[in-house]
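User: quick one - fold this with 3-methyl-2-oxobutanoic acid bound?
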Amino acid sequence: MAGKIHIFDTTLRDGEQSPGVSLNIQEKLQIASQLAKLNVDVIEAGFPIASKGDFEAVKAIAQKIEGPVIAGLARAEKKDIDRAWEALQYAKKPRIHTFIATSEIHMQHKLRMSREEVLKRAVEMVKYARSLCEDIEFSAEDAFRSDPAFLYQVFEGVIAAGARVINIPDTVGYATPIEFGRLIKNIKENVSNIDQAIVSVHCHNDLGMAVANTLAALENGAQQLECTINGLGERAGNAALEEIVMALHTRKDWFSGATGVITEQIHRTSTLVSKLTGVSVQPNKAIVGDNAFAHESGIHQHGVLNERTTYEIMTPESVGLKENQMVLGKHSGRHAFEERLKELGFSLNKEEIEACFVKFKDLADKKKTVSDQDLEALLSEKITEIPETYVMEYFHISSGNKTVSTSTVKLQKHDALIEEASTGDGPVDATFKAIEKAVGMEIILAEYFLKAVTSGKDALGEVTVRIRKNGTLYLGRGISTDIIEASAKAYINAINKMIYTEQEDKGE
Ligand code: KIV
Ligand code: ZN
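Assistant: Sure. Structure tokens for the protein plus 3-methyl-2-oxobutanoic acid:
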């Protein structure tokens, strides 16, 4: 096994293909910048030909994010490769990732191409991509269900044509660990020029074996592991980065080789991805679930208090969960606030600190203590800021169990103030209807989710909504100690994102 294990993160490409997930450029940049802090080796930033938004996001990431290799996906077609290169050319370390399917099912029913045609196309397109960019990755889509002899031929051809990385996906999550490990071993033994390329794997989780298959591949010679934060991805998702990395970190006695991932950044990255995508993490999810380090039973608690290692195989600190040493409150000054932000790993400029300090003071007036989770929620609101077409000035509700709920809202749009009122089925419904009237749009609310950031009666409420327009979903978030206010903020945030995305798509 190789010493260095390359971590290829595809949260922004395969992860973004999850149903209901749609990130705008600012959000993608924010995630890419956090992935760079996590120190992954490759960030797959998107699929540039898929849409104008995808293209612009890959280009922005290529221009702004330093450290990791920036990859962009392209089918084995000239126009895809040209578009990918157009976006990637700005990166210090660009990579074109091109793919074509090699299984009989895909070649016959999807591509309608013969083996000979697929082989010829793969080789030609790798050669073409290589004429533009030094670093080329080639994927044989549905590799696990492909005829191994044909796979060897394709890989040999693309390596000779200049591919630096060959990727072996289990596209439909069909493999089991021993079989998948065997396939990797066979590829290493049967592709004559394999030593000229890095062997990569990409496992989907349809049968819940993506991480196990990835680790089995590593034990059989894979050097690059493709994965996503929180296991996000098409259908049941991809192999989860945090599980792979912590398995390697915790079981150094078993696995040889090491990743360069800064494990203490894992928790922050997981929270950010979950917030921006609106896909919550199940509480018992390994490594990043809320309960991953919680000990409920008395026997376990007793054991951990005496000696942590009785029931803890890794520490919460190793994934970035810090014991809360200091709680801020309304008497905390700017210095304590800034120090806490630094300890939490945020680096903000002066204006950003000022804006957050105002929000913090406002919150501290409403809540007795402001915890790290509260601060992170406040900052993530700031981080995901997009141009605000509508800003809420004021709202008023009248509600009760025997009265019809009424809500009045006043929104600011540039210099104009718009006031509208509506009745509804409860205060949230009335407020949403009043907002719809004010913005003059018919909006379909697809999802509404409320959760408390911390415990206690004065906890911050965090509302996530998804609204739908022309088949596209837009996510909005709002936080407040008042859940109607949090709901209104989330709704307006989703509307602003919809307007921003539509402008982005038109290139305005
Ligand atoms: O799952 C898959 O086969 C893919 C390829 C495009 C790498 O995502
Ligand atoms: Zn995939």
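One thing worth noting: DSSP finds 16 helices and 16 strands in the chain.
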